[in-house]
Structure prediction request, 274 residues.
Amino acid sequence: MPSLHRVLILVGGLTLFSVIETAAPLFELSYKRWKHALPNLFFTLTTILVNFPLAFLLVVAADWVTENRIGLLYLIDLPIWLFAILGVVLMDLIGAWLIHYIEHHVKWMWQFHLIHHTDQHIDTTSGNRHHPGESVFRMVFTIIATLIVGASIWIIFIYQTLSVILTQFNHANVNMPKWLDDILLWVFVTPNMHRSHHHYRLPYSDTNYGNIFSFWDRIFGTYQLIDNKRIVYGVDTHMDEKETSNIWMMLKIPFQRYRPTPKYEKEESLKNQD
Prediction:
């Protein structure tokens, strides 16, 4: 995706969902939004900087599979509309859901990913709160997905556009009507679904890994809905806001000693009340 297009989509999405959060928040905006947004915007910038040089490899991979007709999409002849849908769906599986699942189950990768989870006030700016090291993991898996799927550059463009918009949407602090949420959940990840992933305790943070499509979590048994209004955001091993709002300290967390995560029984109060 051209850098200018990506920036325009990023800024446009942040602006739109910030306005909606202000008008219809789920949690009252009791924190200083701009102060909270600063580290998240810093990590958004580092993600852009990391992705910029790696994008060259992504383009090379997409051109190579297209020229040589290599990948799952080329196993059988498909109409163009089905080629596009399957391409985006499979890119989401490998380039988003799979790497996200792995990051939660490989300790040294979790050390990078937990920076995303340390945010104790989840809103639309939280979606791009990724340590630069994690940004590398995700781009590498996007390239791997391109080679496996056989995704051409225009499929990657559609996938990345949806990924940016849905990431901002499913982290937004919005109070969605249940009827709308129920409709969207058939296909897409919504804020009501994704919030349980940001609860500060296991086993809830090991659910709902999806980014664009909700059905991957249903297929792999990691789907769960809980009472959103009782969620506490953060990570139980890193609840000191002086640490989790300080950019320099967050950059160092992956290189510190691993802090074991306690396991808890499911809390009765978090059962979905709908």
In short: The mean pLDDT is 87. Residues 3-259 form one domain. The CA atoms of residues 213 and 219 lie 11 Å apart.
